[in-house]
Structure formats: C-alpha cells, structure tokens
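Onboarding guide, step 5: your first structure request.
Type a short instruction followed by the sequence, for example:

Predict the 3D structure of this protein.
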Amino acid sequence: MPNDLWLIDAFTDSAFGGNPAGVCFLKKPMPEEWLQSVAREVNQAETAFLIPRKDGFDLRWFTPAVEVDLCGHATLASAHFLWAKRKVKPTGTAEFHTRSGVLTARRKGEWIVLDFPATPAVPCEAPPYLLDALKAAGSPAFKSAFDYMVVLEKPAKLRELKPDYRLLGAIESRGIIVTAPSDEPGVDFLSRFFAPAVGIAEDPVTGSLNASLAQWLLETGRAQAPYVARQGTALGRAGRVHVSQDPGGAVWVGGGTVTCVRGEVAL
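The system replies with structure tokens like these:
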C-alpha cells in the first residue's frame, strides 16, 4: 500500500528556497534498512518519517547516510505536512516523539514554530583541524550537544568561506556551525552549517543549530528576541529563521514552509 512522500521547502516563503526535506507518512513501522534506503533514494539532506500514535506522532530523521538525533527543518516540514493533510487541527499542537525527546510545533500566522530542547554552546578548545579547515585561526570556538561552533567577526569572511571538507570530515561531531553578525537589512545574524561527517557537505538552513545559536546570542547579549537569522550556502540557496522567546525563557524557532512535490512511495 503506498504511503505519502512529499518534498517540502522549510524556512522559506517561496518554492525552491530554504531547505528541502522529504516527509514520508507511514501507516505502520518499517525496518530501519528500508527507511535508510528511502532516504538515500530521496537524496535530500534529511528525510523525515512520521508514524501516528495515540498521543501524537513518532518522528525519525535520516540523511542519505545515517539516522540523526535532531533535525529542525525536517521537523518544520513534517508539521507542515500534518496541517496540510488535516491530521492536526488548525489551532492544535503537533507533538513529535523523537530520539531527542518530545518536540512540539504550532502555527503562528504564516509560520510554524518549534519548541526545541536547549542545546547551549559553551566555550571550548578548538579540536585539531577545525580552525585550519575554516581558515579561521584565532577565532573563538564553542561546543553544543551536537555541533562545534566558530564565531567570525566579519560577515564577508563568512560568505567567502571555502572550507576544507577533508579536514572537517575528520572532526567527531554532527556538524560545524560558523556564524557572524549581519550586515543585511532585517537580519540580525548570519550562519552557515557544514556536516560532512553525516553525509552533508553544507546544509542550506538548519533549524536545530538555532537551539544552540539562539541560546548563545541571548545569553551573551548579542541579540534580543525576537530576532531573525539568515542561513545560506556558497551556491546562494538560503532561508530565514525567526527566533522568539516566551516569558518562561523557552526559545521558539520558526519560519515559512512550501510544498514542492506530492507523491507516494510503495512498500
């Protein structure tokens, strides 16, 4: 029996922007090998797999190479799918059960916003090869639960960055966040994300990195919520991430979503 398989652009208001994710809605659990094969076939940075349960949905994320513990843009795309298919009420909350705990999504005007677990980045000694790979000698380095982060002072250096992927791939980490202040109107901070260790050279827009970046920006006073972060690649694909904070201190990460392809995958 076929299962829905959509391609959805996340963190964008227009098609072919932001970051594309596959979203596969399954009627029953499938073997891990099958999930990985589908993700390899879809060949996007992430493919999300949804399975309904009494208290929400099970959600898993796969790159073409491995399963990962957390993915923001594919979660945003999954929430978009659920509302588009009317599997969650328009004013309801989508609840996802994942390897990183329970995540929630809700609609806020034209956007979908995610409540992500805080993964604050703390100062650290840069591991071997990191700064060399980024040609960023002397730049401060940080470490979150998933990624390393390097802070540049000049946005032009971030845009012009051509990392050594061979060296980055030798670093034991999901990925590398590189960030800098913004010189663009309406944008507060810029970032790029490299993850060759999990099969992604450069990711256009990575929602989950903002769980680290937002905490660091807010705690150090470099930004105040709400703010807008822009992430893009050297090839020009980019998107915007809207970050807000509720009175209790929780950080919400959100953006627009657009369906590009609707299809099915046969079991």
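Each response can be followed by summary notes, for example: The first helix runs from residue 32 to 42.
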